[in-house]
Design goal:
With 282 residues, the protein is an alpha+beta fold. It contains four helices and 17 strands. A hairpin with a 2-residue loop joins strand 1 and strand 2.
């Protein structure tokens, strides 16, 4: 008997709760007195204005018609409820105070906050495009979340004592760790350092040798030019011989020559000149 009474009481409580939830006040919620009339400033939720002023507040607002709703407290008409179509699915029914709530089918996502359209859901390693499709992350970027834009890889580790131990891919960024080189890696680095030092030494030697050769060449060219400038050209004065067989002409030439010699020589030269002239005349 107690169980039956308890069940009946619980049923009545549930019915009253459902009635309270489904019931809404009608008419004007907030008004002001203007002479003999009242003027409505705000209707109850789910109601729209019928007249701005009147004798009774209840007659100023009326509930929205079926399949309509309003969220405004003072409008003359309600908005039609949205219909979920195409790839949309119904999530919540329309009420007088709330529009229909739609969702998208499996594998699709809402394209905006109101879910007025659906788009393809982009998985990790992809990103949405302007044409509402998906594409793989470009080289050098990654995406580790659902339906998000790809982000570029980091170029270095955030901590100074960390090194990059793995490169990034379309699904994850680079991986960093506190890297301690082993004996083999230390030996390799030492060998690389030795090779680098040898290359540097060889390069320095080649540069020095080339510089010495260049200096020697420049000095040799300067000395050669200097010697050429110091050398003076020497020319012998040619003896002009007349091209005639006339004895008198030859005597005149010889006399002129011996007169010049007399000025330098003496009397012995003069006698020799005269004997030579007489021999030529004979």
């Amino acid at each position: 008997m107690a169980v039956v009474l308890w069940t009946m009481a619980l049923t009545l409580l549930v019915q009253r709760s459902l009635f309270a939830v489904g019931h809404s006040d009608t008419g004007c919620m907030k008004w002001v007195q203007r002479g003999e009339q009242v003027c409505c400033e705000a209707c109850f939720p789910g109601n729209h204005l019928v007249a701005e002023c009147g004798l009774s507040p209840k007659n100023l607002c009326t509930p929205c018609e079926p399949s309509t709703y309003t969220v405004q407290p003072r409008v003359y008409s309600c908005e039609p409820c949205t219909q979920c179509v195409a790839a949309q699915v119904l999530v919540k029914q329309c009420t007088a105070t709330r529009d229909t709530q739609c969702g998208c089918k499996e594998g699709l996502l809402c394209g905006d906050s109101a879910c007025s359209f659906c788009v393809e859901k982009c998985e990790k390693g992809h990103e949405p495009t302007k044409d509402r499709s998906c594409r793989p992350c470009p080289e050098g970027t990654f995406n580790d979340q659902i339906h998000q834009k790809c982000k570029p890889w980091r170029t270095r580790c955030p901590l100074p004592y960390h090194n990059i131990v793995a490169s990034g891919d379309a699904f994850s960024d680079i991986k960093c760790a506190n890297f301690t080189p082993g004996p083999l890696q230390t030996k390799q680095k030492a060998e690389e350092g030795g090779y680098l030092a040898l290359i540097v030494v060889i390069g320095v030697v080649l540069v020095a040798f080339s510089s010495i050769i260049f200096v020697i060449f420049v000095v040799a060219m300067k000395n050669l030019r200097k010697r050429k400038r110091q050398q003076k050209p020497t020319t012998d004065t040619p003896i002009i011989r007349p091209t005639t067989d006339d004895p008198r002409t030859l005597i005149a030439i010889e006399c002129s020559f011996h007169e010049a010699q007399q000025e330098k020589g003496g009397s012995s030269d003069s006698v020799f000149s005269k004997d030579s002239s007489q021999q030529l005349i004979a």
